[in-house]
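User: quick one, sequence for these tokens?
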């Protein structure tokens, strides 16, 4: 369903503008980690970094969804230094609600991860049903992220695209103090 990409673009823009997440870069040249199947954003608050990984699960197979997504390959400059705690927010987006067996596998993969290290929250979304059908660990302060995803249901548009660089430039301009001489 093409609406998935448009929905993800809308949510990413909301998260950058309203919740102050920024894209994680893949390399020193600053190429944003916005692959076809996932987007990685981060937000540093004090000594805690939140890494938000958004997955277009229509482009992934069951193994990629249950094992690769919960493998924690995304590290950022801040978290690699060791002086900062890190938590992960995994958001799995499906155009339609997946099979009960896949939902069970996702829940099991999540449970195994938090038994190993309790540093992850997880949401799974069905765009067709406009519902969050898995919400694990979505408590303060993660409710803000939950709200961004559910409010975007109303604004979903299959043709919506966002220019992340332009949004970041606008956000930077908004935060620039005005100097009056």
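Assistant:
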């Amino acid at each position: 369903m093409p609406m998935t990409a448009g929905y993800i673009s809308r949510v990413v823009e909301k998260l950058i503008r309203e919740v102050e997440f920024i894209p994680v870069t893949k390399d020193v040249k600053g190429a944003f980690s916005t692959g076809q199947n996932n987007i990685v954003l981060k937000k540093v608050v004090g000594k805690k970094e939140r890494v938000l990984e958004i997955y277009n699960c229509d482009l992934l197979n069951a193994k990629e969804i249950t094992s690769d997504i919960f493998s924690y390959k995304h590290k950022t400059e801040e978290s690699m230094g060791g002086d900062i705690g890190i938590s992960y927010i995994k958001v799995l987006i499906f155009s339609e609600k997946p099979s009960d067996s896949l939902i069970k596998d996702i829940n099991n993969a999540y449970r195994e991860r938090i038994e190993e290290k309790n540093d992850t929250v997880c949401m799974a979304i069905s765009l067709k049903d406009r519902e969050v059908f898995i919400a694990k660990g979505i408590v303060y302060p993660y409710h803000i992220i939950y709200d961004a995803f559910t409010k975007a249901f109303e604004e979903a548009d299959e043709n919506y695209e966002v220019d992340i660089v332009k949004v970041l430039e606008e956000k930077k301009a908004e935060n620039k103090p005005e100097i009056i001489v």
